């Protein structure tokens, strides 16, 4: 549904963005199915299969947009790489909290470039939403590693760069064509890293193949491509802020599908996050 840029009102775009967030939230649950498959390999197939699905939408674009789309794909690959690497060095909670600073970096990029400079209401809303994310984290903040924390922070910065570039290019390039280019560029970069680091690229069983196909269809095609669809209509900082709902969506899906009931603090934090996004 995100292959064509049909003019829509802001309310419709907001609904589509929330659907993209829900789809992206399913990634944590689907990764459980890919147990035993290296995260780098999961990211490669997730983006590579998505690029293949979007290939019919490939169109010729100008040299500038071609280069920017490739750069956005590189930034997305760096986001995956640094974030996954951080998860091997620091706690999941610390990594998730630090990577959730993406809206702040996207807002700062907007201020530096003069593109969609966020107003006071945005910063106020981000402050509320970030407080909600931290409120959900009552344990697990100890046991961190400086390099792991730094990698998570870099992951947030790369994600902000990826979204900010998309905001610019999406004003001129259709979602199908842009999606094909960023996914293809990202998968290529991840494949190179996998070869250099000796990471195996092939799933070894039907369960892992099912997992990567589901990740391509849900979190990537509906989730990330949905985010890029919204970038045609909304600032990168706003789209990044909507991403703060991902951990909450993942918690909801885990409760429904895996029986992992959220704590009262997580529920309270979710309410605060939603309030912050409502302000934005």
TrEMBL record:
Bilayer-spanning residue ranges:
67-86, 122-140, 146-166, 178-197, 238-257
Q: Note whether Protein biosynthesis occurs among the keywords.
A: no
Q: Which Gene3D superfamilies match?
A: 1.10.3730.20
Known InterPro entries for this protein? EamA_dom, EmrE-like
Query: What GO CC annotations are associated with the protein?
Result: membrane
Q: Which domain of life is it from?
A: Eukaryota
Residues in the signal sequence: none
Pfam family for this entry, one: EamA
State the UniProt keywords alphabetically.
Membrane, Transmembrane, Transmembrane helix
Q: What is this protein called?
A: EamA domain-containing protein
């Amino acid at each position: 549904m995100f292959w064509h840029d049909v003019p829509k009102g802001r309310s419709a775009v907001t609904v589509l963005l929330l659907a993209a967030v829900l789809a992206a939230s399913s990634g944590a649950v689907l990764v459980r199915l890919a147990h035993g498959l290296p995260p780098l390999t999961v990211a490669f197939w997730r983006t590579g299969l998505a690029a293949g699905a979007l290939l019919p939408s490939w169109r010729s674009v100008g040299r500038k947009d071609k280069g920017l789309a490739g750069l956005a794909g590189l930034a997305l690959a760096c986001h995956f790489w640094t974030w996954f690497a951080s998860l091997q060095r620091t706690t999941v909670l610390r990594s998730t909290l630090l990577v959730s600073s993406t809206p702040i970096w996207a807002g700062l990029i907007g201020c530096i470039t003069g593109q969609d400079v966020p107003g006071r209401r945005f910063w106020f809303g981000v402050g509320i939403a970030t407080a909600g994310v931290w409120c959900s984290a009552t344990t697990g903040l100890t046991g961190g590693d400086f390099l792991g924390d730094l990698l998570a922070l870099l992951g947030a910065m790369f994600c902000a760069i990826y979204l900010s570039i998309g905001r610019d290019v999406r004003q001129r390039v259709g979602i199908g064509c842009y999606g094909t280019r960023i996914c293809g560029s990202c998968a290529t970069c991840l494949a190179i890293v996998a070869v250099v680091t000796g990471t195996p690229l092939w799933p070894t069983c039907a369960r892992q193949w099912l997992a990567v196909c589901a990740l391509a269809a849900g979190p990537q095609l509906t989730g990330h491509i949905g985010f890029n669809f919204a970038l045609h209509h909304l600032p990168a900082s706003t789209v990044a802020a909507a991403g703060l709902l991902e951990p909450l969506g993942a918690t909801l899906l885990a409760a429904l599908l895996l029986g992992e009931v959220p704590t009262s603090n997580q529920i309270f934090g979710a309410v605060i996050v939603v309030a912050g996004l409502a302000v934005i």
